[in-house]
Specification:
The chain has helices spanning about 15-40, 45-60, 115-120, 125-140, 145-165; strands spanning about 10, 65-70, 70-75, 80-85, 90-95, 100-105, 110-115, 180, 185, 190-195. The protein is of the alpha+beta class. It is elongated.
Amino acid sequence: MGRRIPRSVTDEGWPGKARGAYCCSALLLLMLLVVDGLSGGLNAARLTVWTVLTALLFVVLLPSRVTAGPGWLTTHGLLSRHSIRTDLLVSVHWSDGVAERLVLRDLAGEQVVLDPRVLIDDPALWHLFDVGVRASLGRGTLLCGAAPLRELSRRAEREISRTVFELSGGGLAPARGQAPGGASIRGRGRWAPRRTRG
């Protein structure tokens, strides 16, 4: 019996990132309260200001939670939720700004902006995303995004190779294009199972 494919996958690194955002905000609030308390300037108004300030910091630091399934991808924020069809993508490009972000748009006009590291660091998410991209290419909807996809695939390939090398205990690094589980990355970093002769 083959391995059962999950209906959806969520970014495994998100809980740790959420804890990090909470800890940073809580630590800042504690430091502000201690400083104000030692100086004798702590009162209800300042407590409110510091609490609001650290709450805003938490909102800024908390990353969106990414969930993907066959043909779709969703980002969940504190106040928003965005979904796209990865099997009906029309464009993929990098966003302008200091932080690196990948912008995905589908045929219905829906858009998702996410940190590309989420896909690179999570093989399950990357696989589902890649399957959707291949479906979009097969349907002819994805006409803009070759360069970002090639760059993303190269980075994912390097990360997979590094992970395999570490798991092998420092043995020989996998051949270029080799992915875990006997899969190979070809072309734009797509996952393709290795064929066996019957």
